[in-house]
Amino acid sequence: MSKPLTYAMIGGGTGAFIGEVHRHAIALDSCATLVAGALSSTPDRSIQSARMLGLPEDRSYSTSQELFEREATREDRVDFVVIVTPNDSHFPIAKAALEHGFHVVLDKPATHTSAQAQELADLAVSNNLLCCITYNYTGYPMVRQARAMIAGGVLGTIRKVFLEYHQGWLASDLESTGQKQAAWRVDPDRAGIGGALGDIGTHAENLGAFVTGLEAESVYAVLHSFVPGRQLDDDASVLINYKGGAHGVLTVSQICIGQGNGLSLRVYGDKGSLIWNQECADELVVTLLDANPITYTRGGPGLDNDAIISTRIPQGHPEGYLEAFANVYRGVTDAIRSMHGAGEPSRLARLIPTIEDGRRGVRFVECSVESAAKGRVVCI
Amino acid sequence: MSKPLTYAMIGGGTGAFIGEVHRHAIALDSCATLVAGALSSTPDRSIQSARMLGLPEDRSYSTSQELFEREATREDRVDFVVIVTPNDSHFPIAKAALEHGFHVVLDKPATHTSAQAQELADLAVSNNLLCCITYNYTGYPMVRQARAMIAGGVLGTIRKVFLEYHQGWLASDLESTGQKQAAWRVDPDRAGIGGALGDIGTHAENLGAFVTGLEAESVYAVLHSFVPGRQLDDDASVLINYKGGAHGVLTVSQICIGQGNGLSLRVYGDKGSLIWNQECADELVVTLLDANPITYTRGGPGLDNDAIISTRIPQGHPEGYLEAFANVYRGVTDAIRSMHGAGEPSRLARLIPTIEDGRRGVRFVECSVESAAKGRVVCI
Amino acid sequence: MSKPLTYAMIGGGTGAFIGEVHRHAIALDSCATLVAGALSSTPDRSIQSARMLGLPEDRSYSTSQELFEREATREDRVDFVVIVTPNDSHFPIAKAALEHGFHVVLDKPATHTSAQAQELADLAVSNNLLCCITYNYTGYPMVRQARAMIAGGVLGTIRKVFLEYHQGWLASDLESTGQKQAAWRVDPDRAGIGGALGDIGTHAENLGAFVTGLEAESVYAVLHSFVPGRQLDDDASVLINYKGGAHGVLTVSQICIGQGNGLSLRVYGDKGSLIWNQECADELVVTLLDANPITYTRGGPGLDNDAIISTRIPQGHPEGYLEAFANVYRGVTDAIRSMHGAGEPSRLARLIPTIEDGRRGVRFVECSVESAAKGRVVCI
Amino acid sequence: MSKPLTYAMIGGGTGAFIGEVHRHAIALDSCATLVAGALSSTPDRSIQSARMLGLPEDRSYSTSQELFEREATREDRVDFVVIVTPNDSHFPIAKAALEHGFHVVLDKPATHTSAQAQELADLAVSNNLLCCITYNYTGYPMVRQARAMIAGGVLGTIRKVFLEYHQGWLASDLESTGQKQAAWRVDPDRAGIGGALGDIGTHAENLGAFVTGLEAESVYAVLHSFVPGRQLDDDASVLINYKGGAHGVLTVSQICIGQGNGLSLRVYGDKGSLIWNQECADELVVTLLDANPITYTRGGPGLDNDAIISTRIPQGHPEGYLEAFANVYRGVTDAIRSMHGAGEPSRLARLIPTIEDGRRGVRFVECSVESAAKGRVVCI
Asked: Any chain D CB within 8 A of the CB of C239?
């Protein structure tokens, strides 16, 4: 194992959810060490959170701006920054990070507009920096297995794709209770134009694109805000026309009482099908025409190398969400090492989602919102 | 147990699928006896099939017309007729049956046009006859349980409905192999304007209506014929706007390799949700807001009377498709007895689907086909 | 379809459970017609029950003895008798039936002692009559598939067998509430020496023997009566040494709260394994060494002829307990026709469980009870 | 978050399986840092493995003896040692560690004999040191939920316990292929007197004891070595008499083709039951008498505090084996901090399995092996 890289975190202080997830995911494989942070939008809480995480005082910054400026001058400057703030600040912070020469790992959805995402993409290219979006569900071994099988032609020509991401936690007016995670997600200023669509729809869109390789041509969307008073969608149904003739049905909802994190994928080709469900992430059911379903399992027989390198422990010993997330980070740190001269990027590095995937996700939200508003099909 | 009624069957001779299903379903509870038939569209095969089923020679008819005319004059005329011919002949045969004074049980989809269905409905009313459509999935005890719970307000106001009916048996060009079941279903002359939509979409639509009581206001549909050369849809995605603001996503497909008879229903209200899957028909999962999922099972605790009276054997001893189908027939024969003076219709009788449900199903197909053709929302 | 046979039922009147199951199962395929009965142990209730079932008055008998005597003299005497009385009367009634020349279908457990079962077996042979035991779980298509695959060597040499039959309905003192089904099952005079062991353990034992073909050599059993005051076992754990070196673990219990009818079978050989669970009866999971699990389904691809002929409707349209039960009856009526000169017995006829299977089940109970009493291994 | 503790690892070098698991588990929550090691039984490979893990040269030891001696003299000596060598060296190494004043985390089974385990227990007490056994399955949130519910009386008096641990990876003669994990596990010199029994049976035994709190009084066991030439058991069936009258059936096997890591627990009391299955570790199904099953999920409603504090991420985002393992380590480091003066042990600290649990596991193996050899019940 090579020496761990170092990273700084922007956002993710006390009370945040996803920041802690990133820290666990990075720690799991000991591939990078947190050494600096600007952990909150308010300077005081930033410092306080840094103290709780045991960061050195001189690298506990009040703001991201301060972090970038000071870290940029250090000899032992961090190798990359992880941005886990609410959506509205993704763009300016990521832009500043790239401008200061830092590799960036950005939570989804990348930005508020696809133009912003494009700007980040261009900036990353011109500065020769990594800009990765943590579409963490691509890190699941059986998702990578699914992708490899489709790429290998096992399913033949893809005809139909069902993508679902159903949660129930916003079925009631949670935002009015002061629940912080709910509050910013339903606020257009912070979340952007998509509610459920931006929060989880982008994950579903990306999962479909990652696994099938299909490109959306146009969408027809219907959005609802079922909880009274809510401004953004908490439920979306999107019909997708893919280039080449395949069709997709993507439904996302956060009012599905009883659903925890119901992300699933079903792909039907002319030679076979596959079904994957995030809540049983270690399984992938594949059925060929006129044959019986075969259940592939993480760590089991017959897997593609992409699945094998994305697993740590044997069949039947469940790996979960954090392990999948960590697989993305293993790829990120591999990619950074490679960019720093450690040779060709590893296979793990080549599987990570980039700002281009992020841009496509934001574009998907934009087109869906437009379609829903106009009541017609909108081209991507 | 009262004396069994008698019935005649139109269609359902050798090589047919659904006719035999009806016969099993009727036999299971010994509620009616097959005593006459015009079992095929060709006179010779009608007679031959009647012989194989052990029908008396004098009630083995060459044509439905002959059957109606002769049976109408018999003192021991059949109590009802079961029509299980391909869709195109449903209307003229059912009409003739009603005109000759016979109660009718008609397979779905009721007719080719909703106007025809309306005509049958009117005729049934004016002749004081029963005209039932075998939407057999309404016969499942746990479907009836779902309906009762929603009617009882357990789920609160319904917001979202997911209806799926996914099969894989038409994923390849089965019709060209001479498979009889495939051949007529993909032929517009015999099947009507809907392919998968008419064949199984009507079941899904009816299941949704039966369980939720919601009324569709408009639909937006996209149809595909994925198998090259196929004229009718083998895949349909329909977004449904219900009166009152609920939204539905109904997807039907016959190209989903690996799916046997994947009919499922998920209903989300503001107080709770329920999930039912035909392939695990004895279970119903209900989750209330902020509570854990409870699995109701046929024969188990806490069931509504509608579920209890629709079951024969204890919990854990699976009942299936034929038992559900038979529950519809128990209702049919109860209804006929009641119309013949045996008192108020039983609860089972009041649960059966009628020609009005059939008409609504045909209308649903018409509007979906129109929406798909025009690329816009169509009012029901 | 040939002309239905006729049968008489002994026991199974009002309030009985299993008699109605037999009647449904026989009716489903219209293979026999109930025309006579002695439906209760008390003459009055026999007559009353016969009336409710619509039996002709002259064939509504007060006692089984009367039935046998009178039917034996009729020209149109019944083809077979179905005996569904409590266990204690199985032997004398079945013996009388065979002595009067009737084919017999007997519910399990066959008799109180294995010697009695042997006597019935001998009598059946010498009188050239059928004596079938309704081990109905052998009628499931996927059980027959399992049997065929093991017989075909798919699993290699069998090493380990897990048989479970767990129910929860006797977890409390139901017998004191007047529940009729509970009362006789826990009464040694009527049930015999085995409680759960006789009632459901014999089913599990037979399922194992039917599917694997293995012969038990010796058993070690531990019995419990967990509900205070209960005389017979309501929980049994039996370790089975099979001839040839395989080992079995059979557990039956009626105090497993939450279990409906949890009968399952897992067989492990040196080349593969199979798992079947009665509550998902249409599925069979088969895994070969170093390969992924394959799910076979009733009506699906790759099935043995024994499974194919035991199914009525397509994949995904669930068949259940009554259909499996009916498969045994299709075999019974085929067997009787064959014995009456209709040619070689059909494959269905050759799959039915006989009094020899019944005898083995009773012997299994006897040995298990002895083992539990003595605290040591007992040879079968 | 407090400053991480430091630890040394004994065993767990290149090619080992469980050492890496421990390292991942410790890293996940950043609760301790690996700073020293004697990673292999051969000095050269120890040093090489240490280099691969990035350990400082002066703390990369050739042998455990060297590690204990040198670390004991350092001011910054490690806080605890993790022992993940093959079973045969557990006792001498753990003894030496305790004698040198180090807290010990020991993989299961604790030792070869229960007397050795007792000696370690005594030593730990007299030296005021922690000696924890990584019965990692006790770390699953829903296992802790199960324990809390039973302790809270939800299930009433426990009657029956089913414990299964079925794997398939040793179904063939893997040890002859040079597979290192297989080789030592089937070698009595290294593994001890139990094969599957020691390797996974101890996990199952401990899971049962942890969750139910029941104490075994006596056992009856049957062992098999199904793979030709194998000396130790690869399949064991153990009937357990618990104090107070409950009964247990524990089956472990490593020849169950198709089973990955099939550890499951079913507990039946007189008021209710619960079922947990390691491969769906986030779920716990609880059924009360005369009620329907309720599915509790990690992160979901209605959980005990023990489950809540053992979880990191929301419902529906799967946590797995490593997270459960990490929960044990969170408890270990909490316990050590507490022993070092950080106040009362946390709840997590009080949930960790100790050498006394380890001793009981070894005793269970000893009694089972004796029972199998003598063919009779053996008192614990």
From this structure: yes
Any residues with CB less than 8 A from the CB of D285 and at least 6 apart, and which? C258, D274, D275, D276, D293, D294, D295, D296
Can you give the pLDDT at residue D2? 62
Residues B132 and B158 in one domain: no
Q: Which residue of B has its CA nearest to A273?
A: B257
Q: Are C148 and C306 in contact (CB under 8 A)?
A: yes
The answer for D 94-133 residues in CB contact with C (under 8 A) is none
Select from C149, C252, C264, C268 the residue whose CB has the most chain D CBs within 10 Å, as the one to mutate to test that interface: C268
Q: Give the span between the Cα atoms of D299 and D282, in whole angstroms.
A: 9
- Band of residue A249 on the pLDDT scale cut at 50, 70, 90: very high
What CATH number should be reported for the domain holding residue B126? 3.40.50.720
CATH code where residue B205 lies: 3.30.360.10
Whether residue C13 contacts residue C39, with contact meaning beta carbons closer than 8 Å, is answered with: yes
**How many distinct structural domains can be found in chain D?**
2
Residue B231 contacts C, CB cutoff 8 Å: no
A332 part of a folded domain: yes
D224 contacts chain A (CB < 8 A): no
Instruction: Say whether both C233 and C366 belong to one domain.
Output: yes
B320: in domain = no
> How far is it, in rounded angstroms, from Cα A315 to Cα A26?
23
Q: Which domain holds residue B69?
A: 5-137+326-354
**Paired tokens of B249:** 């996503």
Instruction: Please give the pLDDT value at position B267.
Output: 98
Same domain membership, residue D306 and residue D170: yes
Residue A254 falls inside a structural domain: yes
Residues of chain A numbered 44-73 and touching chain D (CB < 8 Å) = 52-54
pLDDT at A252 over 60: yes
Residue of chain A whose alpha carbon sits nearest to that of D16: A313
Q: Name the closest residue on chain D to residue A48, using Cα atoms.
A: D1
Q: Which residues of C touch A287 (CB under 8 A)?
A: none
pLDDT at B105 over 70: yes
d(CA B365, CA B380): 10
Whether residue C320 is contained in a domain is answered as: no
D346 and D206 within one domain: no
**pLDDT score recorded for residue B2:** 62
Query: Same domain for A248 and A342?
Result: no
D30: which 2 tokens? 């950043």
- For residue B193, give every residue at least 6 positions away whose Cβ sits within 8 Å of its Cβ, in sequence order, or none: B112, B232, B365, B366, B369
pLDDT at B247 over 60: yes
Chain B contact present for D301, CB below 8 A: yes
Q: Between chains, do B301 and D290 touch, taking CB under 8 Å as contact?
A: yes
pLDDT tens digits, A269-283: 999 999 999 999 999
The residue-averaged pLDDT of D231-257 equals 98
Residues B145 and B59 in one domain: no
Please report all neighbours of A, defined by 3+ CB atom pairs within 8 A. Answer: B, C, D
Question: Does position C2 have pLDDT exceeding 70, yes or no?
Answer: no
Q: Does one domain contain both A348 and A372?
A: no
Q: Kindly report the three-state secondary structure assignment for every residue of A218-244.
A: EEEEEEECCCCCCCCCCEEEEEEEECC
Task: Say if residue B181 is exposed, middle or buried (CB neighbours under 10 Å; 0-12, 13-18, 19+).
Answer: middle
pLDDT at A195: 96
pTM for the full predicted model: 0.97
Are both A346 and A276 inside the same structural domain? no
**pLDDT tens by residue, D31-81:** 999 999 999 989 999 999 999 999 999 999 999 999 999 999 999 999 999
Query: Nearest CA to CA, how far is A253 from chain B (Å)?
Result: 9
Q: What is the pLDDT of residues D311-352, one digit of tens each?
A: 999 999 999 999 999 999 999 999 999 999 989 999 999 999
> Do the Cβ atoms of C290 and A297 come within 8 Å?
no
C314 touches chain A (CB under 8 A): no
pLDDT at D1 exceeding the cut of 60? no
Determine phi and psi for A79, rounding to 5 degrees.
-75, -30
Residue B165 has pLDDT above 60, yes or no: yes
